[in-house]
Amino acid sequence: MRRPLFVYISILLAILSSMAAANPVRVGHVEVAFLSETEQITAGKPFGSAIHFKIDDGWHLYWKNPGDAGAPPSIEWQLPDGFSAGEIQWPYPHRIDLPPLTDFGYDRELTLLVEITPPSNLPESRNVELRATIDWLVCTEICIPGETEVKLELPSGSSNLTANKSANHALFASAREKLPIENEDWEIQASTTEDELLLSIVKPNWVEGKLQSVLFFPEERGIIDNSARQIFQSAGERQTLRIPRDMNVHSSPERLKGILVAEPGWRGHDSEKALEIDLPIEPTEVIAGAKNEISGLWMALLFAFLGGMILNLMPCVLPVLSLKVLGIVGQAEQGRRKSLWHGTIFAAGVIASFLVLAGMILILQAGGNSLGWGFQLQSPAFVFVLSSFLFLFALNLMGLFEIGAVSLGRKAGVSHHAAFQSFLNGVTATVVATPCTAPFMGSALGYSLSQPPVAALLIFAFLGAGMALPYIVLSAFPQLLRFLPKPGRWMVTLKQVMGFLLLGTVVWLAWVLNIQAGGNAVVILLLALLILALAAWIKGQWGSIPLARTRTFTAATAFVLLITFGVSIGLYAIDKFGATALTRTAAEPSGPVWENYSAERLAELRSENRPILIDFTAAWCLSCQVNKRVALENDGVEKRLAELNLALMRADWTKRDDNITSALAQYGRNSVPLYVLYTGKDSAPQFLPEILTPQVVLDALAQVKKKSII
Questions:
Q1: Model pLDDT for residues 387-396, shown as the tens digit of each residue
Q2: Which among 487, 507, 526 is the end of a domain?
Q3: Do 667 and 624 belong to one domain?
């Protein structure tokens, strides 16, 4: 009986000794402890150990790939003879943004798990001392290296003498939850373009819902641009992660190693957050030559600014902007200061609207949605609301009713109504501009996809500034409008003409609504517009200032209630009764046949060495419709298309289609129109201008003919 008692006493003393040895060591801003998952060592049986760091607030340690700067912790083991230590098991990190750098690491705490294997001939009833030297670099705005030696004493014995778990079991379990899991069921493919890595992800059947966001952390440096925004997009069952490459490294890696971090996890709700990948990288032919021509933020800002200026010439916005010019003419007689004030308010409305649209796109994209410029027009409900707004705006211009004014104050000399009207004009101009894409806009907006949110918002702000600039200039120098007649009756007539143009816009939006939601939706829209017309008539008849205050208040109340009723009933009815529109056939009554776009069909046509023209379009995109009528349906162009036996594909983005959104993103775009030409199997895609003429198309097709002869 003495020997077993001696063994138990030895084990108890060793446990107490190990607990004392495991006490953390404080070095600067880091506390380090050497922990064991077991209370004793069994010969030949591996056991878990951990180096546990507690990190002061505001400081951080690094992952095995530290990112743009830093160095990971290292462990140098001093183990007894016959013992061996496995590789460090790294938990998934998070991004640490320290502009202009981005690091990968940990704050607050870090647990590095290491499996230790004792020799099979380890004798029982002895204390074993394990030692390790730990090095690290802890950083905030500055970095401080640290080093310490830790040790741990454990008894050896047979596994049945005591429970094979220690008080640290919960900590080890938590640490293992943060380890990447191996990929077993997810279908993941890696490809590369000149400036991006693409990960195509398809979930297994047993996973419900979609991933909301994914971040990739490469195992090695020099693979990705660490600080750039990674874009996660959905396209049906397939989801795509677009990762900007490190452009300082010109060679392309053959394999992609690293981890994918996602919420809520890769095995279902709130499960393991990180997935380990090691994939071969294949070049993506479809987008191999589709590099965005913009090479930096300053060029993107310039293109956005120029695109905003040109947007003023697009047919979508001419009616609204003509009204702004009329306003400048009328305000010129009130003094330059007042005119400039209204011009500034108009510009604020334009820029604020662009920033709101950009913010909505960024927020929804961060939630895993695939969106682009004009995304709101893909919603029948938004088309309905916009039609109603423009209809009321048109009736206002035609003089059916007026909105009353309230004094702003004695000093300002500017009414609330006038300032609000200028701001509203800016908002309206932006909203009706979304169906149009001007030259330079597509490239700038496409570039914004790969940028951090601040840079993306800045690009949209410059787009708005470019659009507003001409009106700021005219407001500051109203003498530039001296060629126009003096304010008079002609201005009222022109306003009414602009009202009819806006009614024409409403007719066009009704056509779009018919394509999106069917004929029932158009009938619902017409009924709602009838109610709105009644509201406007009541406001115009009994809401004018000379009448009694009670009557004008009653008229204004009826005006608001009828508008609210008409819009609310319309939205409810479209949602409930608006039938989904029938898919339009690819074949036109005459002329070339356009196929519906699909990535699979495109790959098939390319393998046949066919020249291909892809038309990314939408019914709500007025630029697209003008290009189609003027250039693509031109007799000479159609004849040349037939002669060259071009495969024609039309990607219709009228309704939301994640597959088309993903295809646009692969070409570095998030807006329509986009025209992509392949001259043959191995050719890189060529982009036609966003504004087409028959000669522009024929010049592009000449390359197809030239290559076919060669």
A1: 888 898 888 8
A2: 487
A3: yes
CB atoms within 10 A of CB 127: 15
- pLDDT computed for residue 172 by the predictor: 92
Q: Is residue 80 part of a domain?
A: yes
Q: How many helices (H) and strands (E) does the chain have?
A: 17, 24
**Same domain for 216 and 89:** no
Question: Which CATH number covers residue 260?
Answer: 2.60.40
Q: Are residues 369 and 478 in the same domain?
A: yes
Total structural domains within the chain: 4
pLDDT tens for 284-294 read 544 433 445 55
Q: What is the CATH number of the domain that holds 77?
A: 2.60.40.1250
What's residue 593's pLDDT? 86
| Prior bond of 80 cis (ω within 30°) | no
Whether residues 43 and 121 share a domain: the answer is yes
The DSSP code sequence of 514-533 is HHHH-HHHHHHHHHHHHHHH
CATH code of the domain in which 704 resides: 3.40.30.10
Q: Which two tokens mark 561?
A: 């209630």
The domain of 608 spans 595-709
Q: How far apart are CA 687 and CA 705, in angstroms?
A: 17
Tell me which of 120, 154, 178 is where a domain ends.
178
Classify residue 375: in a domain, yes or no: yes
Whether 330 and 474 have beta carbons less than 8 Å apart is answered as no
CA distance 457 to 441: 14
Residue 449 pLDDT: 65
Task: Identify whether the C-beta of residue 300 lies closer than 8 Å to the C-beta of residue 459.
Answer: yes
Q: What is d(CA 509, CA 515) in angstroms, rounded to the nearest whole number? A: 10
Closest by CA to 240, choosing from 283, 282, 201, is 201
Q: Give the type of residue at 359.
A: G
d(CA 155, CA 102): 44
Cβ burial of 163 (10 Å; 0-12, 13-18, 19+) is: exposed
Q: Are 156 and 126 in contact (CB under 8 A)?
A: yes
Confirm whether 517 is domain-assigned. no
Residue 523's φ and ψ, nearest 5 degrees, are: -60, -45
Question: Could you tell me if 317 and 186 lie in one domain?
Answer: no
**Global pTM value:** 0.56
Instruction: Give the least confident one: 11-20, 113-122, 270-279.
Output: 11-20
Interacting residues of 705 by C-beta distance below 8 A, sequence separation 6+: 644
How many whole angstroms from its chain centre is CA 76?
Answer: 43
* CA 502 – CA 121 distance, rounded (Å): 91
Is the alpha carbon torsion for 282, 287, 288, 291 positive or negative?
A: negative
Q: What angle, rounded to 10 degrees, do the helices at 489-517 and 519-542 form?
A: 150
Claim to verify: residue 29 and residue 151 sit in the same structural domain:
yes
